[in-house]
Structures are given as structure tokens and as C-alpha cells.
Amino acid sequence: RQRGYATGFVGKWHLGHPRSSLSLDERKRVQTASASDWKLVRDTVLQEYHGLQALVHRAGFDYAERLYVNNLYEAQHVLPFAMLHHNIEWIAEGAAKFIAMPRGSPYFLTVAWTLPHNPDAADSIAADPKYTPGGFWACNRT
């Protein structure tokens, strides 16, 4: 950034967790909610996601989107387990949006894929891609 580069990060952060104000009971309530309970847990999930974005910004990135806090182990995410899947399309679109941004300077983009890391990707292939750590994604898979 000091040399005029726009900086971006998308994908798996894997460099620490943001501080959470959630109690263990609240965290468990969110994690065990079904995807159909999204409206009941939305604000909590997005609060945690925005905390992760702030952490990535503090690390020096101008753009922090399409983030996973770590590998997709349930204990590491504040997201209903039913919504926790690898979502390569979501990450790729976030990278493409950063690259397409108009700018008059060079850029540096880190793209950290969740694959090939655990858990196994087989369940994610069949998963609904609209479920993401940042909420529902208005994707078009046609």
C-alpha cells in the first residue's frame, strides 16, 4: 500500500480469529440453527462476518470480501452448520470484482481457496451455493 498498490484479500483468512462477544450458548444457537432459521440468526452471523472483515482491513487490505475465518471446521465458524460449505464460485466472484474495479494504480490481490483443505469437498459440490459465511449470495449457476 505504501507504494500505491490497492490491496485485496478474498477467501480463507487463516491468520487468527476476530474477537467475538458471543457467549458459548449464543454461538451454539447460531451453529445449530437450520438454514430455514436464517432470519433468526442473520444479524449475529453478519456481525461476526463484519468483525472478520475489520480484522483483514487492520492487517492492511483495502478490500476484504468473500471471507472464511479458517478451514471449514464447525467450531471455527459462527454460521449454521447447514450453511457451512466450500463455495469456490463465491470466492472467485469476489476476486473478479476486485480485479474489475476501476483504478489508476497497480493492485495486489490474495486469493486463498478453502479447497483442497478439510472437510471433504464432496458435500459441498451438492450444497446450495447461496449459503455463504457472508449471508445469502444471489448467484446464478446457469
UniProtKB/TrEMBL annotation:
<keyword id="KW-0378">Hydrolase</keyword>
<dbReference type="GO" id="GO:0016787">
    <property type="term" value="F:hydrolase activity"/>
</dbReference>
<protein>
    <recommendedName>
        <fullName>Sulfatase N-terminal domain-containing protein</fullName>
    </recommendedName>
</protein>
<dbReference type="InterPro" id="IPR024607">
    <property type="entry name" value="Sulfatase_CS"/>
</dbReference>
<dbReference type="InterPro" id="IPR017850">
    <property type="entry name" value="Alkaline_phosphatase_core_sf"/>
</dbReference>
<comment type="similarity">
    <text>Belongs to the sulfatase family.</text>
</comment>
